[in-house]
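Section 3.1: Structural characterization of target chains.
Under the original work plan, the team committed to producing a structural model for every single-chain target entering the pipeline before any wet-lab resources were allocated. The record below documents one such target. The sequence was received from the expression subgroup and is listed exactly as submitted; it comprises 176 residues.
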Amino acid sequence: MFVNLYIPSALHWTHNGVDVSLAQKSSYPNDGRIDFEFSLSKPTELVAHFRIPAWAEGTSISVNGKRWRDPVLPGTFASLRRKWKNGDHVELEMPMKMRLQILDARNPDTVALLRGPLVLFAVATSPGKVTRQQWLDAKDAGPGKWQVATAGGSMTMLPFTAIGDEQYSTYLQVSG
């Protein structure tokens, strides 16, 4: 079984004659914690593969409250082979770190701000010069909203799904 999309959902299937369900709860991509619960008609061994995005360095996995023993590597699938029982619980925790993505190698000072899987867009007017560190120090300003403090004032950053009629920019010039 492969899980590569982290949205609240439930999957039901039969594995070697055993009825299996996997329920997923999360507020991903706004939060990096994803919870899974197995329901099985009887204990059975199977491999659960969870996609670990390339940006998700520091991801941890716990099974029934205990840290998974194998390393969790970004850009791969974490494979959990075990005898699963009814009610087993998996917690996937992906740190949602701020990072910068350059436009291309010829324009290293033109960058976008990302948090986890989300691209954050500068809305309204640009405050002028922004340093890389100012972008990376963006502060949570409420659900789905971040503020970047700059010498020219505060800049609001939103994911695309939160933008209405505002003007927005994806890439901005940085200094320093």
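The longest helix spans residues 132-136.
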